[in-house]
Amino acid sequence: MGNSLLEILNVRVVGSGERVLVLSHGFGTDQSAWQKILPYFLRDYRVVLYDLVCAGSVNPDHFDFRRYVNLDAYVDDLLNILDALGVKRCAFVGHSVSAMIGILASIRNPDLFSKLILIGASPRFLNDGDYHGGFERAEIDKVFAAMESNYESWVRGFAPLAVGADVPAAVREFSRTLFNMRPDISLFVSRTVFNSDLRPVLGLVRVPCWVVQTARDVSVPGSVAAYLKTHLGGPTRVENLHTEGHLPHLSAPMVLVPVLRRALR
User: Fold this and answer.
1) 189-234 pLDDT, tens per residue?
2) Which residues, listed in sequence order, are joined to residue 186 by a DSSP beta bridge?
């Protein structure tokens, strides 16, 4: 299982430090999303990079629609990778859906993680009573319909919105990795993410967390970062980035790097 999973998910270990740092990408990207961040951590860390099974860089034959119906199977993948690599303790940086995967993994194996750094994290994207996740059910259904009817056109509209900042290179890069995904897998994963609700388990987290939130994120309102700070069970702080968009590692890496360094200290 170990070696084949490492191959399937394109696992790489780079860098020469003593400590282990895991970088886990979000929906619509792959491990290449970290390429502007990576050089700054190679001296001090052994960095583990991998692709989520839904990424366009992974052979789509490996995506099991029966298995990946919720985030637990992604958590299995992460824990199996770390086990296969013999990692006993690591710091974890997770973007978007991977922030939630990291939270669930830390609940299952708290001793494995020294710290969780959560970029653009949301335990639930849908509004619910007093909870403001950012989206109404009808809005999300419209998104799914758009993805289904014309994926290419949806990507062209969504990528600039998600990047948020006026950084054409980041929009091009995010569009590239979105187009790499098979449209049916992309839609399936979107449904999985938008139907997730991790609010009930946040209190089970014991690992220190650092929530990184940009000034304006089309996917995650600032109120969600405040909610995480209140409800995560471990010591938690929120760092507001002076930049916009859901993908600061693509659009503003030089704003993000010093924050990651500080968080990892």
Assistant:
1) 999 999 999 999 999 999 999 999 999 999 999 999 999 999 999 9
2) none
Is 249 in the active site?
no
Annotated active-site residue in 30, 51, 77, 217: 217
96 is catalytic: yes
Q: Is 246 a catalytic residue?
A: yes
Other residues' Cβ atoms within 10 Å of the Cβ of residue 230: 9
The helix (run of H) or strand (run of E) holding residue 104 is helix 97-108
Whether the Cβ atoms of residue 36 and residue 173 lie closer than 8 Å to each other: no
Give this prediction's pTM. 0.97
Of 77, 138, 18, 215, the residue nearest 225 (C-alpha): 215
Q: Return the amino acid letter for 238.
A: V
Instruction: Specify whether the CB–CB gap between 56 and 180 falls below 8 A.
Output: yes
Alpha helix positions (H), the chain: 2-8, 72-84, 97-108, 137-149, 151-163, 168-180, 183-194, 222-231, 248-251, 253-264
pLDDT at residue 1 is higher than 60: no
